[in-house]
Write a structure and sequence with these properties.
Elements: E1 2-9, E2 20-25, H1 35-43, H2 54-63, E3 68-77, E4 80-94, E5 97-104, E6 116-117, H3 120-133, E7 139-141, H4 150-158, E8 166-167
Parallel strand pairs: 5-7, 7-8
Antiparallel strand pairs: 1-2, 2-3, 3-4, 4-5, 4-6
Length: about 170
Protein backbone atom coordinates (compact mmCIF):
# COMPACT_ATOMS: atom_id res chain seq x y z
CA UNK A 1 0.00 0.00 0.00
CA UNK A 2 1.34 3.44 -0.85
CA UNK A 3 1.46 5.85 2.04
CA UNK A 4 1.70 8.89 -0.22
CA UNK A 5 0.76 9.56 -3.79
CA UNK A 6 3.14 8.86 -6.61
CA UNK A 7 5.05 11.94 -7.65
CA UNK A 8 6.45 12.30 -11.14
CA UNK A 9 9.23 14.63 -12.10
CA UNK A 10 9.10 15.80 -15.68
CA UNK A 11 12.42 17.56 -15.46
CA UNK A 12 15.43 15.48 -16.25
CA UNK A 13 17.80 14.88 -13.35
CA UNK A 14 20.35 13.37 -15.68
CA UNK A 15 20.30 13.64 -19.51
CA UNK A 16 19.91 9.84 -19.82
CA UNK A 17 16.76 9.78 -17.66
CA UNK A 18 13.33 10.34 -19.19
CA UNK A 19 10.85 10.42 -16.31
CA UNK A 20 11.52 9.92 -12.65
CA UNK A 21 8.72 8.85 -10.32
CA UNK A 22 8.91 8.59 -6.54
CA UNK A 23 6.61 6.36 -4.52
CA UNK A 24 6.31 5.82 -0.79
CA UNK A 25 5.33 2.34 0.40
CA UNK A 26 4.44 1.00 3.83
CA UNK A 27 5.20 -2.61 2.85
CA UNK A 28 7.25 -4.54 0.33
CA UNK A 29 4.18 -6.30 -1.08
CA UNK A 30 3.69 -3.94 -4.01
CA UNK A 31 7.45 -3.77 -4.65
CA UNK A 32 7.77 -7.50 -5.40
CA UNK A 33 7.82 -6.78 -9.13
CA UNK A 34 11.04 -4.85 -8.56
CA UNK A 35 12.86 -7.72 -6.81
CA UNK A 36 15.34 -8.24 -9.68
CA UNK A 37 15.98 -4.51 -10.07
CA UNK A 38 16.35 -4.15 -6.29
CA UNK A 39 18.92 -6.94 -6.08
CA UNK A 40 20.73 -5.64 -9.19
CA UNK A 41 21.17 -2.31 -7.43
CA UNK A 42 22.19 -3.99 -4.16
CA UNK A 43 24.79 -6.15 -5.91
CA UNK A 44 26.23 -3.22 -7.87
CA UNK A 45 26.65 -1.04 -4.79
CA UNK A 46 30.23 -0.16 -3.81
CA UNK A 47 30.10 -2.62 -0.90
CA UNK A 48 27.41 -5.25 -1.59
CA UNK A 49 25.92 -6.82 1.52
CA UNK A 50 23.19 -9.35 2.17
CA UNK A 51 21.51 -6.71 4.36
CA UNK A 52 20.55 -4.64 1.31
CA UNK A 53 18.91 -7.47 -0.67
CA UNK A 54 15.15 -7.58 -1.19
CA UNK A 55 14.88 -11.03 0.42
CA UNK A 56 16.52 -9.80 3.64
CA UNK A 57 13.92 -7.06 4.11
CA UNK A 58 11.09 -9.39 3.14
CA UNK A 59 12.22 -11.93 5.74
CA UNK A 60 12.78 -9.28 8.40
CA UNK A 61 9.32 -7.81 7.87
CA UNK A 62 7.79 -11.29 7.95
CA UNK A 63 9.33 -12.02 11.35
CA UNK A 64 8.51 -8.59 12.82
CA UNK A 65 11.10 -8.71 15.61
CA UNK A 66 10.30 -5.10 16.43
CA UNK A 67 7.21 -2.94 16.35
CA UNK A 68 7.83 -0.62 13.43
CA UNK A 69 6.12 0.70 10.31
CA UNK A 70 7.94 0.17 7.04
CA UNK A 71 8.48 3.25 4.90
CA UNK A 72 10.22 2.43 1.63
CA UNK A 73 10.92 5.23 -0.81
CA UNK A 74 11.22 3.91 -4.37
CA UNK A 75 12.53 5.87 -7.37
CA UNK A 76 11.65 4.53 -10.82
CA UNK A 77 12.57 5.59 -14.31
CA UNK A 78 10.27 4.30 -17.06
CA UNK A 79 9.10 1.44 -14.83
CA UNK A 80 12.57 0.36 -13.75
CA UNK A 81 13.66 0.68 -10.13
CA UNK A 82 16.60 3.08 -9.95
CA UNK A 83 16.78 3.59 -6.20
CA UNK A 84 15.27 2.65 -2.87
CA UNK A 85 15.50 3.91 0.68
CA UNK A 86 14.48 0.97 2.92
CA UNK A 87 13.35 2.88 6.02
CA UNK A 88 10.93 2.48 8.88
CA UNK A 89 9.27 4.55 11.56
CA UNK A 90 9.81 3.22 15.07
CA UNK A 91 9.59 4.21 18.71
CA UNK A 92 12.65 3.92 20.91
CA UNK A 93 14.08 5.27 24.11
CA UNK A 94 17.35 7.15 24.17
CA UNK A 95 18.68 7.90 27.66
CA UNK A 96 15.18 7.11 28.94
CA UNK A 97 13.49 9.62 26.64
CA UNK A 98 10.82 8.20 24.28
CA UNK A 99 11.44 9.20 20.67
CA UNK A 100 9.77 8.65 17.30
CA UNK A 101 12.52 7.68 14.89
CA UNK A 102 13.15 7.07 11.22
CA UNK A 103 15.69 4.28 10.78
CA UNK A 104 16.85 1.72 8.29
CA UNK A 105 14.44 -1.17 7.91
CA UNK A 106 15.86 -4.10 9.84
CA UNK A 107 17.54 -2.07 12.56
CA UNK A 108 19.08 -3.01 14.91
CA UNK A 109 19.41 -6.61 13.66
CA UNK A 110 21.26 -5.77 10.45
CA UNK A 111 25.02 -5.31 10.62
CA UNK A 112 25.00 -2.90 7.69
CA UNK A 113 22.42 -0.77 5.91
CA UNK A 114 22.36 1.71 3.06
CA UNK A 115 20.23 3.14 0.31
CA UNK A 116 20.52 1.44 -3.06
CA UNK A 117 20.66 3.60 -6.18
CA UNK A 118 21.95 3.84 -9.71
CA UNK A 119 23.58 7.27 -9.51
CA UNK A 120 24.23 10.38 -7.42
CA UNK A 121 21.15 12.14 -8.86
CA UNK A 122 18.93 9.32 -7.59
CA UNK A 123 20.62 9.42 -4.17
CA UNK A 124 19.94 13.15 -3.94
CA UNK A 125 16.28 12.54 -4.77
CA UNK A 126 16.06 9.77 -2.14
CA UNK A 127 17.62 12.06 0.48
CA UNK A 128 15.20 14.89 -0.35
CA UNK A 129 12.24 12.51 -0.07
CA UNK A 130 13.61 11.12 3.20
CA UNK A 131 13.79 14.64 4.59
CA UNK A 132 10.15 15.27 3.65
CA UNK A 133 9.16 11.93 5.18
CA UNK A 134 10.99 12.75 8.41
CA UNK A 135 8.57 15.53 9.32
CA UNK A 136 7.15 14.62 12.70
CA UNK A 137 9.96 12.33 13.82
CA UNK A 138 12.32 13.25 16.63
CA UNK A 139 15.42 11.50 15.32
CA UNK A 140 16.71 10.23 11.98
CA UNK A 141 19.00 7.37 12.95
CA UNK A 142 20.94 5.88 10.04
CA UNK A 143 23.36 3.63 11.89
CA UNK A 144 24.70 1.07 10.79
CA UNK A 145 25.66 2.78 7.55
CA UNK A 146 29.34 2.26 6.76
CA UNK A 147 31.63 5.27 7.01
CA UNK A 148 33.06 4.28 3.60
CA UNK A 149 29.64 4.37 1.91
CA UNK A 150 29.10 7.04 -0.77
CA UNK A 151 25.75 7.68 0.96
CA UNK A 152 27.51 8.48 4.24
CA UNK A 153 29.94 10.80 2.48
CA UNK A 154 27.04 12.57 0.72
CA UNK A 155 25.08 12.98 3.97
CA UNK A 156 28.12 14.49 5.68
CA UNK A 157 28.70 16.85 2.74
CA UNK A 158 25.07 17.99 2.78
CA UNK A 159 25.15 18.59 6.52
CA UNK A 160 22.81 15.82 7.65
CA UNK A 161 21.85 17.76 10.75
CA UNK A 162 19.30 19.66 8.68
CA UNK A 163 17.21 16.47 8.59
CA UNK A 164 16.27 16.71 12.31
CA UNK A 165 18.55 15.54 15.04
CA UNK A 166 20.48 13.09 12.95
CA UNK A 167 22.76 10.17 13.83
CA UNK A 168 24.88 8.29 11.33
CA UNK A 169 26.64 6.21 14.01
CA UNK A 170 26.50 6.16 17.79
CA UNK A 171 30.30 6.19 18.13
Amino acid sequence: MRTQQRREFDRQLDPARQLIAVEHHDSLNDLGGFREDWNRLAESSPEPEVFTRFEYFQTWLGSRPRAAQAHVIAVTDRGRLEGAAPLMYAAKRVAGVPLQTMEFLGSPQNDYADFIYSGADVLDLLLAEMERSAAGVDLVHLAPIKETSPTCRRLRKLGAGTLRPFVLNWS
